[in-house]
């Protein structure tokens, strides 16, 4: 009786078969490799395109017409990717969409980064996304990105990952002398202008350290100081992604928000079987700063991709794009907050996610009185439940922390604004936005299975 009446939440690892456990662990080995290869949106885009092409996806601009089972992608300025598998039905019947983001919180170099101070050489940074600044000191850092010269030639940089590479770091005051710092509020203890990266200490023969470091950079990369103007260099943790725990049940790594959902949805569209409906995956950029700009979800670039599909399927009559959107369904594939045993007071235990309890659905996001929320309607939640329950996918429904404590959002509202039914669906994370985020392998695999079942569904 109790079993039928009450919603008993159980751990996904309970009574799991060895076969399934092995599948989950193997899947996450691939995920860990992906994290180590892709620490920026550019690297993730490159990886995603390679995987898509290996699976027969073609650049949409190389196709004149599209028909059932054709696989296409669009790469937007090397930073975001849209991919689709054309279904049997008309596009205007709507698509099944899973959308994640591949940018993560980090420190960007300023346009004039290089300086010397107190006999040392440093880079100035400007943080990107919501970080707790104190977490970025005294850890090994790597630098990834591109420098583009006025003639268009591009130098790619990734230093700090190889065992033989040097790393970089941001220093912090020793406890012996931290009296003043201890008096400050934690948010002010390390300020934005304190996030200066230590990059060298040997001066030239004329005792000029900045010049000497620039000389080394020039010899290695062929760039001069003015070339930093046209660069995008991102400072990221140099840690490797690792198995976490004696049972190796978790993943610890930088950038899991939201490359965990990006990887799970990439694998889902690669493995999805044919469907009546067209399947679409989005890997967007700039989510961490509001989805703005021409690689962010708010831009018209995704509309362009969908219009190209409609054109090439000869379906692009007036209003076709709107009709497509209004008939489409979407999982906004982004991470949620897992219950942290050290900070339980930030969560309301009946409505928070527990890592290892399955992929998480957030009916709504937003803050305070649901301000800025993308709130999925009950009918659509029921539809997603049906997809998950009929495919034996373990899921939990939660929200982000206690009421009035904070809040957050994803790309969900942007697609909901276009008329789609959208719900947030992703992997719960502990220590989100930190340099070392924690996820459960069980949830990562549940997300993959959930995304795949959603993409394959034939119900409108
Ligand atoms: Mn996210
Ligand atoms: Mn985030």
Describe the structure.
The chain is of the alpha/beta class. The chain folds into 2 domains: 2-104 and 254-456, Zn peptidases (Aminopeptidase), CATH 3.40.630; 106-237, Aminopeptidase i, Domain 2, CATH 2.30.250. It is built from 12 helices and 22 strands. It has helices at 2-5, 18-37, 41-54, 179-183, 186-189, 209-221, 256-271, 301-312, 320-326, 378-390, 412-417, 441-456; strands spanning 58-59, 71-76, 80-85, 95-101, 106-117, 120-128, 141-148, 154-159, 197-200, 231-237, 242-244, 250-253, 278-284, 329-332, 336-337, 359-362, 366-367, 395-398, 407-408, 421-426, 428-429, 437-440. Strands 1-2-3-13-4-14-20-16-18 form a 9-stranded mixed β-sheet, with helices on both faces. Helix 2 (18-37) crosses helix 12 (441-456) and helix 7 crosses helix 12 (441-456). It is globular and about 75 Å long.
Name the features.
binds manganese (II) ion; 12 helices; Aminopeptidase i, Domain 2; 22 strands; Aminopeptidase; 460 residues; alpha/beta
The CATH architecture of the largest domain:
3-Layer(aba) Sandwich
**Unreliable runs, pLDDT <50, ≥5 residues?**
none
What coarse outline follows from CA principal-axis ratios? globular
The small-molecule ligands in this entry are: manganese (II) ion
Major sheet: size, sense and barrel closure? 9 strands, mixed
Mean pLDDT: 96
How many structurally independent domains?
Answer: 2
Approximately how much helix is present in the residues? Answer: 25-40%
- Order of adjacent strands in the largest pleated sheet: 1-2-3-13-4-14-20-16-18
Briefly, what CATH class of the largest domain? Alpha Beta
Fourth CATH level, the homologous superfamily of the largest domain: Zn peptidases
- Counting helices, strands and paired strands, the structural category is alpha/beta
Total helices: the number is 12
Q: What oligomeric state do the depicted chains represent?
A: single chain
Number of strands: 22
Q: In angstroms, what is the radius of gyration? A: 23 Å
CATH topology of the largest domain: Aminopeptidase
- What is the terminal separation in angstroms? 34 Å
């Amino acid at each position: 009786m109790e079993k039928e009446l009450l919603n008993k939440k159980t751990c996904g690892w309970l009574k799991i078969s060895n076969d399934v456990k092995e599948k989950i662990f193997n899947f996450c080995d691939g995920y860990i490799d992906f994290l180590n290869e892709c620490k920026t949106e550019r690297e993730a885009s490159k990886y995603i395109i390679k995987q898509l092409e290996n699976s027969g996806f073609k650049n949409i601009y190389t196709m004149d017409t599209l028909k059932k089972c054709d696989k296409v992608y669009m790469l937007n300025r090397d930073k975001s990717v849209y991919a689709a598998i054309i279904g049997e039905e008309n596009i205007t019947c709507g698509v099944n969409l899973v959308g994640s983001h591949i940018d993560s919180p980090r420190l960007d170099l300023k346009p004039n980064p290089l300086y010397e101070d107190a006999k040392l050489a440093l880079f100035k940074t400007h943080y990107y996304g919501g970080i707790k600044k104190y977490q970025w000191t005294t850890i090994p850092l790597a630098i990834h990105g591109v420098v583009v010269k006025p003639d268009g030639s591009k130098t790619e940089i990734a230093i700090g990952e190889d065992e033989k590479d040097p790393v970089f770091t941001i220093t912090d005051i020793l406890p012996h002398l931290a009296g003043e710092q201890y008096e400050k509020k934690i948010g002010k203890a390390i300020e934005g202008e304190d996030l200066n990266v230590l990059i060298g200490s040997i001066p030239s023969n004329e005792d000029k350290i900045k010049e000497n470091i620039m000389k080394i950079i020039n010899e290695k990369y062929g760039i001069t100081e003015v070339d930093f103007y046209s660069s995008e260099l991102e400072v990221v943790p140099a840690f490797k992604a690792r198995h976490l725990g004696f049972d190796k049940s978790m993943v610890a790594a930088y950038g899991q928000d939201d490359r965990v959902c990006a990887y799970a949805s990439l694998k889902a569209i690669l493995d999805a079987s044919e469907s009546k409906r067209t399947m679409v995956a989005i890997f967007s950029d700039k989510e961490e700063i509001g989805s703005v700009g021409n690689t962010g979800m708010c831009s018209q670039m995704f509309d362009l991709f969908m219009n190209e599909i409609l054109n090439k399927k000869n379906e692009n009559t007036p209003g076709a794009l709107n009709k497509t959107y209004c008939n489409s369904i979407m999982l906004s594939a982004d991470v949620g907050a897992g219950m942290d045993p050290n900070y339980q007071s930030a969560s309301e235990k009946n409505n928070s996610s527990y890592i290892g309890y399955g992929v998480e659905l957030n009916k709504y996001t937003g803050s305070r009185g649901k301000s800025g929320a993308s709130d999925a309607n009950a009918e659509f939640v029921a539809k997603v439940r049906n997809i998950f329950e009929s495919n034996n996918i373990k899921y939990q429904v939660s929200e982000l922390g206690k009421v009035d404590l904070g809040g957050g959002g994803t790309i969900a509202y942007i697609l909901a604004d276009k008329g789609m039914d959208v719900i947030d669906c992703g992997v719960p994370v502990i220590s989100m936005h930190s340099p070392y985020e924690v996820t459960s392998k069980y949830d990562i695999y549940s997300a993959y299975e959930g995304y795949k079942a959603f993409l394959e569904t034939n119900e409108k």
